Amino acid sequence: MYDIFCISAGQFQSKKKNSVFSNKHRYLNYGLLGIASTLGRSGYNPIVIHGLFDPPSTILNICEQYGISGTRNPILLSIPSFFALEWARTLSALIKEYYPNKTIIVGGRWVIGNQDQWIKSYLGVDLVIPGLVGANILDIVTSMNKFSTMASATKFRSNNSTTIEYRHLHEKDLFQPSIEVSTGCGMGCSFCEEKDIKLSKLKPATIVAEEMLAINKSSAFVEATPYLESSMFIATREWAEQLYAERQKRGISCNWRVETRVDKLNARNIPTLAKAGLKVVDLGLESASLKQLERMNKTNNPKSYLTTASELIQTAYDNGIWVKVNVLLYAGETSALIDETVDWLSSIRKAIKGVSAGPVIVYGLPSDREVFIKELEGLGATAIDTDVIGVTNISPSSTIDYEASIEISKNICREFMDSRDYYDLKSFSYFSRDYTYQEFQRDIEGLVQKDVSFKL
């Protein structure tokens, strides 16, 4: 039986309005699975369970089937976003009702920030850990375990491996795997949560290849397509060539996906990366309006930025790589500024696999979001409170309110993405791995255009 339960908090509602596809998603909390892997290498037998869009009571029932009543170790509860906060509160209350002696430890750096005491009180839990936990989880678990001693816990010290072990994942065959290759960003974009966090060095290609091989060897991940997790993927030609060579040596053939900035992935390296298995790029273009790019602090040279973006997207297309372009409706938007972005995208339409568009959202409790909201208001935006704690919607300007920005965003997506494109991109990384295209086609039958953000 399992002796440590690691739960990734689910959501009562999605970031985008709940749809027929919401419960098809399997977003892997790879940070929590990494913590569980560390615990597993240290003598524990953890299990990671994702709340997804299931009720908290359903997740607690799963925990009971796995033997949660028989363990005295703390329960680890990860909150990946503010949309998961209420769900986490409900689950914590259920645990305390049925198992009042159990200890709950909460993590989730994007939500907690410096508000750990407020989060602790609001959720009714025993301990909230701000920031990154990493290997410190061993000491944290030991210190909170009333029935153990430091001596007995340190007996199984973990090695320095950062490899994620999927044997600890509940329903692992339904998730696409991830490989963390770097952390941070530090580029200073106004809307980015990692704008002040220094980018770490890219994980060596040899180690990445070893992790890909481990994924390939798992029967749960036949034809898996891992996401190489990094807020800003920056690969040199030497790194790409080494990854290609290491994959060839090990017989690895899986395709993979990354997220990056326009000005950080060199188009000259694309052919080698394609040979090394790169298939999908989530590209943070954000806008093709010269004014909006400057307002976002995205670049000091918008014209050069867009030239670079066009070259990168076309080169990716020429090498068989799908590019999904991310577009952000920012403060100060007007119809004319949005048209600049749409017109630019239209000029390279053939090379784009899809578009993800949406208005800027401000995350954080009141004291954490004041500065950014004032910055947006200075550009003509208006903040709108929501019923989700820590989430503030934005009306971009006096001529485009929040509801209008949602419709404009959907129209942009529809303009550049049909149902097949949408399914291809979602199934590569996010849809449950058993959700077939035939099932998807059945699910869109009877839907009308306003229900979806792709062209029917």
UniProtKB/TrEMBL annotation:
InterPro entries documented for this protein: BchE-like, Elp3/MiaA/NifB-like_rSAM, rSAM, rSAM_horseshoe, rSAM_sf
UniProt domain Elp3/MiaA/NifB-like radical SAM core: residue ranges: 175-377
Keyword Electron transport among record annotations: no
Entry cofactors: [4Fe-4S] cluster
Organism per entry: Methylomonas methanica (strain DSM 25384 / MC09)
UniProt GO molecular function: catalytic activity; iron-sulfur cluster binding; metal ion binding
Highest taxon of source: Bacteria
Signal peptide from the UniProt entry: none
Keyword Translocase: no
Keywords, in A-Z order: Iron, Iron-sulfur, Metal-binding, S-adenosyl-L-methionine
Lineage: Bacteria, Pseudomonadati, Pseudomonadota, Gammaproteobacteria, Methylococcales
Gene3D superfamilies registered for this protein in UniProt: tm_1862 like domain
Protein name, UniProt field: Radical SAM domain protein
